[in-house]
């Protein structure tokens, strides 16, 4: 039955928004939760421009859960919370558009959203038409309140909204938020442009032992929140091979600028989200970002890896990795280049032996130009060489033929 259902989706067409490279932007949830308002959103739009983040590529302003009124109107339409957003959504969309930004909104494939606001289940067409009318460019669609939505599977419920978005006549980017429970890497490419692959991220770098009930891709525990950066990277070992242009695994919002991560930890976070082709959605209050965090987010060379035209996620290299000690990941970039990530999980510096024999894309007969993306150092390499990597640092090395 499950496979028949999948087959039915395979013939459906995906919503049409262009997603050859992962989307970039800002989302209200991680900092503001349900407590944002019009002025915070407009100020964030201005900050995306004045900090240079928009020009670096962060062009979606995404309003997460909490914009809705507690009940629908008599005609069934979703209403806007009049205290937080007294003028509605359309003027905010206009405000964003006038600043060269796109605007995103949030809803849910169940009766309730995760914040217990009215979800879109049973109202998909009406809601998609309403969003289109407001000028919305992006929908993040969540999976709470789904038990009340009867026996429909997530692929069915998420496909209904895909069809409604297509029917709305507006090009609306469709970001699925199903936390990886029903393994969306097998079906989400028929439905939307990206799919969350884990429970909610938290601004903690290392696996605390208590975080994120599921630490591997095929775990069946439904508890989901509080995933550390390292746990999400762990889960991507099995999931990264499924990512492709038009359907990227979403590792959740960036926590750079939230919590107390060191510079190396923030750079590791950014490096993995970029090289594994996750959407890059800032979750911090931009008005409070330190210079250091802003420079991590705006690093041009890392963003180029994220936005590389091949759209291929780097993959885990088990032969060169040691559990809880060191990780090596590698992936193809356009122009015959290869990106290699060396992550040190220890609390002291360690050496990585590189590797040329173990990475199929590189061979030891050639001389390679190797660029260290964060330090900007460029060296020439033939055969193996050794790289020192500091605590929680990730060296991002781009290999190109000389
Ligand atoms: C879920 C999602 C979060 C956020 C909240 C809103 O937990 O995974 O990203 O959208 O719901 O309630």
UniProtKB/TrEMBL annotation:
Keyword Hydrolase on this protein? yes
Q: In what residue span(s) does the Alpha galactosidase C-terminal domain sit? A: 327-398
Designated name of the protein: Alpha-galactosidase
Q: Which UniProt keywords apply?
A: Disulfide bond, Glycosidase, Hydrolase, Signal
Pfam family of the protein (one): Melibiase_2
One biological process term from GO is: carbohydrate metabolic process
What does the record give as the reaction this protein catalyses?
A: Hydrolysis of terminal, non-reducing alpha-D-galactose residues in alpha-D-galactosides, including galactose oligosaccharides, galactomannans and galactolipids
Residues in the signal sequence: 1-15
GO MF, one annotated term = alpha-galactosidase activity
- Extract the Gene3D superfamilies matched here: Aldolase class I, Golgi alpha-mannosidase II
- Enzyme Commission number(s): 3.2.1.22
Q: Which family does it belong to?
A: Belongs to the glycosyl hydrolase 27 family.
InterPro entries recorded for this chain?
Answer: Aldolase_TIM (IPR013785), GH (IPR017853), Glyco_hydro_27 (IPR002241), Glyco_hydro_b (IPR013780), Melibiase_C (IPR041233)
Task: Reply yes or no: does the keyword Signal apply.
Answer: yes
